[in-house]
Recover the amino acids of this structure.
């Protein structure tokens, strides 16, 4: 089975091209009700397809609260990856390569909402604090690889205490949503630890068009109906750093993000 030729086409050469990165790359697209690796067109492994189908079922459930995620899944504006242990060198290498591919596909994928869903086979997450630690360790390792090749997205701050912070990779800002089996938030509870990378430019466009506040109201109303309450970290845009929202764990008032953005460096990437 061959996917259309422009799936996986890239504007820039992928700099994450080591043997480890290529061996752990699992970039995939959903096409005609099957999951295929891109750009090769090979069918995904049964476990990867099972995880993808489970995630798709979660998001498309009528009671799921995030309407942006629903739009991305229904409209085909998403890609997925499946890796070993969250935060491991192998996962970092494969995810770096695949997240770059997603960045390069933005022009073709952008139907209003785009997202990259990175799921991991392990580890078993015991509680929300453990997952939060794993999430930020993974983002730190991604950044350490990325900063060898790319600058931070100039539209966002690299300081996680700044209200204008957003995670950046390949010079594109992302809002990251962590989901895992130990989450206290029902809409973030999923059997496999997963990081969902949402391209920030789609939210900026919604704000400029006047649709962001309406979408936010709908999501919050659905969350209250499902859970009975809102996550206290859901601060309004520009009031608190979005870093508090990434893991889904209700953060204490004195919580400090463990992520640190480094300056320009040289060396080998993954």
């Amino acid at each position: 089975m061959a996917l259309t030729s422009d799936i996986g086409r890239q504007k820039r050469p992928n700099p994450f091209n080591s043997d480890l990165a290529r061996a752990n790359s699992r970039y995939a697209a959903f096409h005609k009700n099957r999951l295929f690796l891109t750009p090769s067109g090979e069918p995904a492994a049964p476990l990867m397809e099972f995880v993808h189908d489970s995630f798709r079922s979660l998001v498309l459930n009528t009671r799921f609260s995030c309407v942006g995620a629903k739009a991305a899944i229904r409209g085909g504006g998403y890609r997925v990856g499946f890796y070993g242990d969250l935060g491991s060198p192998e996962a970092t290498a494969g995810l770096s390569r695949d997240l770059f591919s997603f960045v390069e596909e933005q022009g073709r994928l952008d139907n209003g909402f785009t997202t990259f869903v990175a799921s991991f086979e392990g580890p078993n997450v015991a509680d929300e604090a453990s997952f939060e630690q794993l999430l930020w360790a993974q983002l730190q390792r991604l950044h350490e690889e990325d900063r060898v090749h790319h600058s931070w997205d100039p539209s966002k701050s690299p300081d996680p205490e700044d209200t204008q912070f957003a995670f950046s990779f390949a010079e594109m800002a992302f809002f990251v949503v962590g989901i895992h089996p130990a989450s206290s938030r029902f809409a973030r509870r999923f059997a496999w630890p997963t990081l969902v990378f949402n391209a920030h430019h789609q939210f900026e466009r919604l704000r400029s068009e006047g649709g962001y506040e309406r979408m936010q109201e709908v999501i919050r109303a659905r969350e209250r109906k499902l859970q009975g309450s809102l996550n206290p970290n859901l601060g309004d845009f520009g009031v608190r750093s979005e870093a508090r929202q990434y893991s889904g764990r209700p953060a204490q008032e004195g919580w400090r993000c463990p992520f640190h953005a480094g300056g320009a460096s040289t060396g080998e990437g993954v």
